[in-house]
């Protein structure tokens, strides 16, 4: 790709970015959210046309107008969430979308070829089995097989490891190397630096739509990569505060269990304390939070909140107790996207905005929304703007406003900085510090280990529904926590 | 809450309806000298009074992203229960009360399966559509029961208060109440929020199940009331009373700009759509077009109501971006979602 530029209205998504992919090479693309990675992929696969620049294949310029055409050029992409038809079998999924095989399906031949492709990848599973039963990692293998069946020459892997376990990641890497050795050019995108260094031959870093650096992996260090991505040194990344919690117990959980999901979870949270929850995706951290918030109540165990034993069976009740939960998926669970910022903020506390006649007082709603807009510098031209029109960081601030407006005493934050840019991330960290300073108890679930370590007073580590230990700030470091989270060593 | 800017986007469909209404009225005036007259206007409402009462609660339910197909069957069942009890010499006041209570219970029955068992309302109310009608047939078989007391029959006739019938007064009162509840109270806000995103609603501590339960129970009660009004208007009850009315009711709501996917629409729009449908049918009757042709015209209007907003949006996008394939447009819009532009119309809300 040469000198690619793309502009969306006022935003320059890509600014003269060039990228060279070679057969038999894994080329990693790094950058914060909004750096332009996705736009670049969309141009390569024909979803967007570039405003400027050209794509060259074997030295010849090609025009890619749509994804189907990209396929005929041998360019394919696999994503974080595999696109799988659960009711079709493995072979059908591999060969889906390949027309011109005649009116009748030659099943025997299809199974034979599917077997051959999987064998060439060094994996083996029944091509006649339904895709529904496959693990995420197996589904991704099917996607890779699909790409291979189309004689793919350029394979784009967009955060393929985001939802995989460590073991599965290793397998995916084995596959990736197999493909590379077969002469496929691979563009690999991930947020996890360790992975990049493990798999990549060449690393390109984008920031704000510009190409910042492009060099062989051996010449790049973690420090230089982070510096190039964020444009500053790592130290300014997190707003660290000294531990400021009191001995005033807010929440005490003993032996909390939800059959088949998590068991034997026990911890305390004091006022002003940030208790981090670390662990791999799927280790049960969110489930514990959902139990505390009454979405899926626990089966066994004791919750002592504010000195009283409580059973929490609905979010409504939890809100009344002063427990607030900021969910991981803010677009689906945190916000009503087509509704205005003001409507979203007043939502859990709408009762307070109702006058004697039962009419919602919109002026008071607006006043509240304006307060939070100012307090958290929510960047929006008006509080009447639909939440869908905000950036991820500003959406997260709206969700935070919405819950802080309930005047909670316990705030549960589930991946509060996922998918938001560095600036907004720092602001969210600052807000967390501020709230802890005001005496809120905070339960912080984060898969971003540096964040969890920097923000928590103590860190609870979970693995497969079990509590592996609680580490004080002095005891916790990356190694200790990862060891506990993965159950090795 | 709703500023000037929002109204622009919100009223687009309602404005179009108002224009259509003016056109229909103008055409009616030019075509028939009988059209302008108090009696004709009363008559125009009277002929569909039960449907338009039901359209009010149906608007709540569809905005809540549900549907109630059983309303017409419940009208029939309620009228049949009243007639059956009356024929058994139960005092009519008691029979009316029994029919209304049964209506609320039947509505709550729907609500239970939808709100607490989590079944889709389309399936639940389709089943109860059949079930309630079956109940009506069991009660009356192929009999027809009439000869109700004069005071009961009067409820269905004009000149109940001044020139107005009881039904028209009920409609007017319910319209004002619905307007206030839907657009100005917390409950109305919850109806919209749940219709938009029931997950986010639940996570915000809103009682989603309770809200749905209330809506379906009220729907049952109103359907039962509608059945009694129809019985009073016709003066006689058969098991097939009000059959297929639900389609007309849903048509009026959708034509009013309420999205079948929930979350958007206003009661003003539904009110306008009711006026359009009634005046159109009335004018066509006066001009001697058959009922079938009237129905076909309403059908065309409904399709237009679904198509037009989409066409308008596409036209605006084309204007903005130049002609490209739809696929590219939607992909670009996705990419732009994070940008605070105000060029794409916000769906109408609260």
Number of strands of chain A: 20
Given this structure, which CATH class of the largest domain in chain B is correct?
Answer: Mainly Alpha
Unreliable stretches covering 5 or more consecutive residues of chain A = 7-11
Mean pLDDT of chain A: 83
What is the share of helical residues of chain A? 25-40%
Proportion of beta-strand residues of chain A = 15-25%
Mind describing the biggest β-sheet of chain A? 6 strands, mixed
Number of helices, where a helix is a run of at least 4 consecutive DSSP H or I residues of chain A:
17
Write down how many β-strands of chain B occur, each being a DSSP E stretch of 2 or more residues.
Answer: 2
User: From the coordinates shown, what is the CATH architecture of the largest domain in chain B?
Assistant: Orthogonal Bundle
What gyration radius of chain B follows from the Cα positions, in whole Å?
22 Å
Q: Which homologous superfamily in CATH is the superfamily of the largest domain in chain A? A: P-loop containing nucleotide triphosphate hydrolases
Name the structural class of chain A: alpha/beta
Helix vs. strand class of chain B:
mainly alpha
User: How many helical elements of chain B?
Assistant: 15
Structure description:
The complex is a heterodimer of chains A (489) and B (350). Chain A is an alpha/beta fold. Chain A has two domains: 231 residues, 3-Layer(aba) Sandwich (Rossmann fold); 238 residues, P-loop containing nucleotide triphosphate hydrolases (Rossmann fold), CATH 3.40.50. Chain A is 34% helix and 24% strand. Chain A is built from 17 helices and 20 strands. In chain A, the strands form four sheets. Chain A has a six-stranded mixed beta sheet, with helices on both faces. In chain A, α15 links the parallel β17 and β18. In chain A, α14 runs parallel beside α15. Chain A is globular. The two termini of chain A are 45 Å apart. Chain B folds into two domains: 282 residues, ABC transporter involved in vitamin B12 uptake, BtuC (Orthogonal Bundle); 43 residues, no CATH class. In chain B, 73% of the residues lie in helices and 1% in strands. A two-stranded antiparallel sheet of chain B has the order 1-2. In chain B, α3 packs across α9. Chain B is globular and about 65 Å long. Chains A and B meet through α1, α10, α11 and α13 of A and α9, α10 and α15 of B.
């Amino acid at each position: 790709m040469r000198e690619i530029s793309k502009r969306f209205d006022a935003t320059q998504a890509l600014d003269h970015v060039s990228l060279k992919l070679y057969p038999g090479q894994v080329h990693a693309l790094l950058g914060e959210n909004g750096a332009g990675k996705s736009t670049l992929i969309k141009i390569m696969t024909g979803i967007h046309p570039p405003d400027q620049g050209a794509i060259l294949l074997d030295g010849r310029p090609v025009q890619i107008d749509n994804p189907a055409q990209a396929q005929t050029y041998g360019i394919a992409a696999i994503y974080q969430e595999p696109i799988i038809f659960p009711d079709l079998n493995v072979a059908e999924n591999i060969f889906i979308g390949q027309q011109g095989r005649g009116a009748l399906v030659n099943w025997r031949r299809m199974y034979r070829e599917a077997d051959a492709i999987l064998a060439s990848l060094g994996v083996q599973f029944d091509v006649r089995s339904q895709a529904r039963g496959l693990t995420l990692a197996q589904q991704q293998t099917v996607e890779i097989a699909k790409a291979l069946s189309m004689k793919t020459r350029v394979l784009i892997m967009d955060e393929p490891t985001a939802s995989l376990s460590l073991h599965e990641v290793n397998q995916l890497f084995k596959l990736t190397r197999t493909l590379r050795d077969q002469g496929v050019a691979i563009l690999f995108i991930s947020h996890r630096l360790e992975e990049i260094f493990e798999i990549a031959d060449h690393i390109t870093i984008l920031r704000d739509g510009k190409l910042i650096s492009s060099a062989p992996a051996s010449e790049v260090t973690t420090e230089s990569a982070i510096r190039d991505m964020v444009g500053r040194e790592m130290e300014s990344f997190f707003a660290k505060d000294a531990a400021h919690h009191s001995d005033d117990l807010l929440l005490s959980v003993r032996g909390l269990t939800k059959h088949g999901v998590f068991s034997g979870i026990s911890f305390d949270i004091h006022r002003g304390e940030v208790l981090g929850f670390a662990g791999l995706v799927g280790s049960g951290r969110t489930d514990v939070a959902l139990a505390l918030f009454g979405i899926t109540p626990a089966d066994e165990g004791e919750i002592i909140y504010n000195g009283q034993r409580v059973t929490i069976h609905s979010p409504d009740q939890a809100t009344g107790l002063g427990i607030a939960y900021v969910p991981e998926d803010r677009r689906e669970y945190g916000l009503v996207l087509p509704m205005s910022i003001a409507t979203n903020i007043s939502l859990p506390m709408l009762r307070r905005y109702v006058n004697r006649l039962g009419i919602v007082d919109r002026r008071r709603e607006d006043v509240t929304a304006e307060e939070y807009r100012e307090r958290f510098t929510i960047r929006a031209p008006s509080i009447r703007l639909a939440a869908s029109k905000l950036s991820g960081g500003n959406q997260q601030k709206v969700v935070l406003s919405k819950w802080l407006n309930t005047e909670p005493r316990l705030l549960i934050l589930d991946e509060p900085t996922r998918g938001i840019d560095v600036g907004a991330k720092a602001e969210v960290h600052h807000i967390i510090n501020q709230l802890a300073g005001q005496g809120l108890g905070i339960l912080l679930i984060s898969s971003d280990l540096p964040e969890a370590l920097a923000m928590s007073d103590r860190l609870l580590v979970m693995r497969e529904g079990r509590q592996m230990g609680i580490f004080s700030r002095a005891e916790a470091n990356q190694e200790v926590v990862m060891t506990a989270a993965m159950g090795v060593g | 809450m709703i500023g000037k800017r929002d109204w622009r986007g919100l009223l687009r469909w309602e404005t179009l309806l108002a224009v259509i209404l003016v056109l229909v009225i103008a055409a009616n005036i030019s075509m028939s000298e009988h059209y302008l007259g108090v009696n004709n206007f009363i008559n125009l409402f009277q002929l569909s009074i039960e449907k338009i009462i039901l359209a009010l609660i149906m608007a709540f339910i569809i905005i809540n992203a549900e549907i109630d197909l059983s309303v017409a069957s419940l009208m029939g069942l309620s009228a049949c229960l009243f007639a059956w009890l009356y024929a058994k010499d139960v005092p009519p006041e008691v029979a009316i009360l029994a029919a209304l209570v049964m209506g609320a219970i039947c509505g709550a029955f729907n609500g239970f399966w939808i709100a607490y068992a989590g079944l889709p309302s389309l399936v639940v109310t389709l089943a109860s559509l059949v079930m309630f009608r079956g109940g009506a047939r069991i009660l009356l078989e192929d009999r027809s029961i009439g000869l109700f007391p004069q005071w009961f029959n009067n409820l269905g006739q004009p000149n109940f208060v001044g020139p107005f019938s009881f039904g028209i007064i009920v409609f007017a009162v319910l319209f004002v109440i619905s307007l206030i509840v839907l657009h100005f109270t917390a409950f109305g806000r919850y109806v919209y929020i749940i219709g938009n995103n029931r997950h986010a609603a639940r996570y915000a501590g809103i009682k989603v199940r309770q809200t749905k339960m209330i809506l379906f129970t009220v729907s049952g009660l109103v359907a039962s009331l509608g059945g009694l009004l129809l019985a009073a208007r016709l003066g006689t009850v058969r098991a097939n009373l009000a059959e297929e009315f639900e389609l007309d009711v849903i048509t009026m709501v959708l034509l009013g700009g309420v999205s079948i996917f929930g979350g958007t629409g206003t009661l003003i729009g539904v009110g306008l759509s009711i006026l359009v449908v009634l005046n159109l049918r009335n004018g066509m009757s006066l001009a001697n077009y058959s009922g079938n042709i009237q129905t076909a015209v309403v059908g065309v209007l409904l399709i237009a109501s679904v198509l037009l907003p989409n066409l308008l949006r596409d036209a605006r996008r084309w204007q903005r971006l130049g002609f490209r394939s739809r696929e590219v447009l939607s992909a670009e819009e996705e990419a732009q979602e994070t940008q605070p532009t105000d060029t794409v119309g916000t769906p109408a809300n609260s």
